[in-house]
């Protein structure tokens, strides 16, 4: 079984990347977060999962083993296929998903395109006791003395969520919000969003 590809990312598209390994180009379907993590024109390790259907064979790529593990857990649930699982992981990190499941946050999960309330409820019911390993595994790690650690979480969450609604990935949004707060030292959500947007557009 193909576990990973160690190759050069030659192309990035909407929902996919093309990686070259041993003169063979592999097209991999990816989440927005993985696409953001992979470096174009550089050698990357891309972890893989092969999806075999009657009418198609798809290779899914991940920037981390943690994201792949969460993907495989998600598709084990009835009504959640590869497309929906990638949509979830495009908006939220594995740690975010685990937190929402653990806290039975149906509202946050239902925001994902293709994931209705009933499916979100089933996801929570079936995975609540299986996701402890994913909690606190965010890629974004705050430094102990970083001022953002003392800001009201509701402010940063609201600002990051607004950026994600504009199409930015969870990691892009969180990083931009953190930098915006460092610059502005403000707890005004709109002020943080404006500064974060200016940083993302650079």
From TrEMBL:
Gene3D superfamilies: 5' to 3' exonuclease, C-terminal subdomain, DNA helicase RuvA subunit, C-terminal domain, Nucleic acid-binding proteins. The keyword Transmembrane helix does not apply. GO terms for cellular component: cytoplasm; Holliday junction helicase complex; Holliday junction resolvase complex. InterPro entries: DNA_helicase_Holl-junc_RuvA_I, Hlx-hairpin-Hlx_DNA-bd_motif, NA-bd_OB-fold, RuvA, RuvA_2-like, RuvA_C, RuvA_C_sf. It is found in: Cytoplasm. It comes from the Bacteria. Residues 72-91, 107-126 form the Helix-hairpin-helix DNA-binding motif class domain. Its main location: cytoplasm. Transmembrane segments: none annotated. SUPFAM superfamilies: DNA helicase RuvA subunit, C-terminal domain, Nucleic acid-binding proteins, RuvA domain 2-like. The RuvA-RuvB-RuvC complex processes Holliday junction (HJ) DNA during genetic recombination and DNA repair, while the RuvA-RuvB complex plays an important role in the rescue of blocked DNA replication forks via replication fork reversal (RFR). RuvA specifically binds to HJ cruciform DNA, conferring on it an open structure. The RuvB hexamer acts as an ATP-dependent pump, pulling dsDNA into and through the RuvAB complex. HJ branch migration allows RuvC to scan DNA until it finds its consensus sequence, where it cleaves and resolves the cruciform DNA. Has three domains with a flexible linker between the domains II and III and assumes an 'L' shape. Domain III is highly mobile and contacts RuvB. NCBIfam families: ruvA. Homotetramer. Forms an RuvA(8)-RuvB(12)-Holliday junction (HJ) complex. HJ DNA is sandwiched between 2 RuvA tetramers; dsDNA enters through RuvA and exits via RuvB. An RuvB hexamer assembles on each DNA strand where it exits the tetramer. Each RuvB hexamer is contacted by two RuvA subunits (via domain III) on 2 adjacent RuvB subunits; this complex drives branch migration. In the full resolvosome a probable DNA-RuvA(4)-RuvB(12)-RuvC(2) complex forms which resolves the HJ. This is Holliday junction branch migration complex subunit RuvA. It comes from Peptoanaerobacter stomatis.
